[in-house]
Amino acid sequence: MVKPSAGPTTFEEVVMCRWLAYSGEPLKPAVLILDAQHSLVAQSLNSPLGAETVNGDGFGFGWYPEDAGNGNIPALFHSIEPAWHDENLRELTNAIASPLFFGHVRAAAGPPIQQSNCHPFRHENWLFMHNGFLDGFSVMKRDLAFAVDPELFPLIQGTTDTETLFYVALTMGLMDDPVAALGRALRFVEETGRKHGIRFPVQGTFAVSDGSRMWAFRYSTSQRSRSLFHSVAVPELREMFPDAARLELFGDHAKVVVSEPLNDMPGAFVEVPENTVAVLDDDGYRHEPFLSEAA
């Protein structure tokens, strides 16, 4: 595989994954993770739009409880099993309902296959996940680690570039302004990478949530980011497909962001453009420019 870098890339740094995020009326996650035509588990076996066809190096599932009485702290389930092979995932995603959840399947080419390296990552009421990689992470790792707030650094449990990026973004104000903070963090990664001779340090799509809102980013230094889509509003979908009984499972405010469309219904999913953040909240969707200025 040819990677978009002129710098000292190592094989261990390449991670390609698939993910989805849902917000809206409480929904059994199995509807999207297991049962959809091209569900996340189906994508773990066959990912036509992914850099890796099979994503079997563990998975993660993060969800906010239907009752937010716990301060809206999300729960996590991580496993190093392939998603298609884990009966606990089926049991769990059919037993609960959640108004906002993340799902992620992993294809790891180097960082250890262990639970602490599975997405999504959590800090207080925040969830974060990523599809792609930070090119040259092994040579940047020390610089990025020193950029993390000393009070946050002990909370890093795994060895992935994604978790390190999450804590750099937290240090730079993610909990106050997710869009600005992730932008600052990615610019810092690019500056750091170029000091080490890495031409295209950032590749990926990113999802962030505080439990009530969700932000989905598509950005790469090379301007050739991983694929990212979101669903059309459910009332509009019902008009487009009046005979689609499956749409009855979703409330009017249901919103899905995905690495790949979950079905083959024409027009059901809209591609998120390069250098864009899709903001999902009670008002629906909106697209905003993200790091569209030259670095």
Automatic annotation (TrEMBL):
Q: Which ranges carry the Glutamine amidotransferase type-2 domain?
A: 17-295
Entry's CDD domains?
YafJ
Q: Name one GO molecular function term.
A: hydrolase activity
**What's the EC number here?**
3.5.1.118
Top EC category? hydrolase
Report the domain of life of the source organism.
Bacteria
Alphabetical list of Gene3D superfamilies matching this protein:
Glutamine Phosphoribosylpyrophosphate, subunit 1, domain 1 (3.60.20.10)
Keyword annotations for this protein, in alphabetical order, are: Glutamine amidotransferase, Hydrolase, Transferase
Name under which the protein is recorded: Glutamine amidotransferase
Source species: Leifsonia soli
